[in-house]
Protein: histidine kinase
Organism: Flavobacterium gawalongense
Amino acid sequence: YKNNIIRTQSNLMLKEKNKELEIAKEKAERASNARSEFLSTVSHELRTPLNAINGIAHLLLEENPKKSQMNYLSSLKFSGDYLTKFINEILEINKIDSNKLEIEYISFNLKQLLEDIKNSLKELASVNNNIFKLEVDPAIPDYLIGDPTKLSQIMMNLINNALKFTKNGTVSVIAKLHSLEDKNATLYFEVIDTGIGIPADKLQSVFDSFSQGSIEINRKYGGTGLGLTIVKKLIKILGGRINLNSIVGKGSSFSFELQFRIGSPLINVKEKTKT
Ligand code: ADP
């Protein structure tokens, strides 16, 4: 009888504890949703007037301004572009963290996608006097099924960084077929540069939000410190993991593996999933 009373009491206590935990969980979820909604609203509200400011700066720059005005306008455009990038990145991270990011599955041509990225970054490569190499394994199937927008965003970010932190050097982009089974292909991507490199004690933290190599690096190269955070999160969502190897003064290598279903120009799959 005594044992029964003890058992009932401990059951009651356990139930109470579980209830408390449930309430705390709901509270945390509500707080997180409210924060995410707030961030999203503020960012969208900021974006609209910013687009107007950027648009006007752009128009005025095209109207052959005087040299003194040109400097002010260029500075306005630079700051506007920076803020736009920053807001878009905050929105993107918020979307990922609140599981609202959509992944699309469509048939796409990887070779074409990488060529397009290379062309769009050609100017940055030549500004820094870098050799930009693209090596695509011919064994990779012509068409893959995946999310080309997300892949493009990942590659653009990594290559952009590689070109930014390298001067008079080489940036190589490698896409290799790792394995081909039945309907799936596993691909290995690597972006290698011969740039400034990353110190050993920063190899983990460069993926944290707002983390930049150092104040000096930030002052010299600019940037938001959010690019690699997004890259890491996107690769994870697509089923991979990012690896980083780097030696200060010698260069860096960012690599990851992803699995794709094999596509064809005739297959036009369009599935969407939320993360
Ligand atoms: P940022 O907008 O500052 O470039 P990222 O998140 O893309 O932000 O990168 C974070 C930091 O990691 C950079 O500020 C830089 O210090 C370091 N970093 C990233 N890519 C490279 C690279 N290829 N070579 C050297 N340092 C890099």
About this structure: The mean pLDDT is 90. Residues 161-162, 165, 193, 195-198, 206, 211-213, 217, 223-229, 252 surround adenosine-5'-diphosphate (CB under 6 Å). The beta strands are 102-109, 131-136, 143-146, 170-181, 184-193, 243-247, 251-262, 271-274. The first strand starts at residue 102 and ends at 109.
